[in-house]
Amino acid sequence: MEAKAIAKFIRISPGKARLVVDQIRGERVEDALNTLHFSRKAAAVPIEKTLRSAVANLINRSDGETVVPPESFIVTRAFVDAGATMKRWRPRSMGRAHPILKRSCHITLMVSDGQDETKEATKE
């Protein structure tokens, strides 16, 4: 079973957020949370919050089915898309203006309990 969490319009540039997301893709959730918690990157804070939300979504979604311990959850997909860009202007010399782009991003994380593969293998 899989669950997804999306954080939209996070005020960090997508390139900086992708550096952090690449570190947790394919990891166990417990290891990913440790990596994010002790990371010095600013993008780690909203990504950790999104990962916790995805885990909560998976726990709530499994409602009474076979209980799987959260330690066995895996980050199956993790990616960052570009969000809206705010355009601002900075004054420069001789009356000119220089554009400043304040970028944002959308963070998408998918968490799996690792049992999808076993169900598909038994069907074949």
Shape: elongated
Tell me the radius of gyration: 19 Å
Please outline the major beta sheet: 3 strands, antiparallel
Q: Name the CATH homologous superfamily.
A: Ribosomal protein L22/L17
Q: Please state the average pLDDT score.
A: 89
Please count the beta strands (DSSP E, at least 2 residues each).
5
Relative strand content: 25-35%
Q: How many domain units?
A: 1
Annotation field: number of helices:
4
CATH topology name: Ribosomal Protein L22, Chain A
**What is the CATH architecture assignment?**
Alpha-Beta Complex
* Low-pLDDT residue intervals, each spanning 5 or more residues: none
H/E element order: EHHHEEEEH
What is the class in the CATH system? Answer: Alpha Beta
Helix proportion of residues, in percent?
25-40%
* Main sheet strand line-up: 1-5-2
The span between the termini is: 18 Å
**Oligomer description:** single chain
Please identify the structural class as seen in this structure: alpha+beta
Describe this structure in words.
- This protein is an alpha+beta fold.
- The model has no long low-confidence stretch (mean pLDDT 89).
- It is elongated and about 70 Å long.
- The two termini are 18 Å apart.
- The strands form two sheets. The protein has a three-stranded antiparallel β-sheet with strand order 1-5-2. The chain has a two-stranded antiparallel sheet with strand order 3-4.
- The protein has one domain: Alpha-Beta Complex (Ribosomal Protein L22, Chain A).
- The protein has helices spanning 14-24, 29-37, 44-61, 116-123; strands at residues 2-10, 74-82, 86-91, 97-102, 105-112.
- Helix 2 (29-37) packs antiparallel against helix 3 (44-61).
- Helices cover 37% and strands 31% of the residues.
- A hairpin with a 5-residue loop joins strand 3 and strand 4.
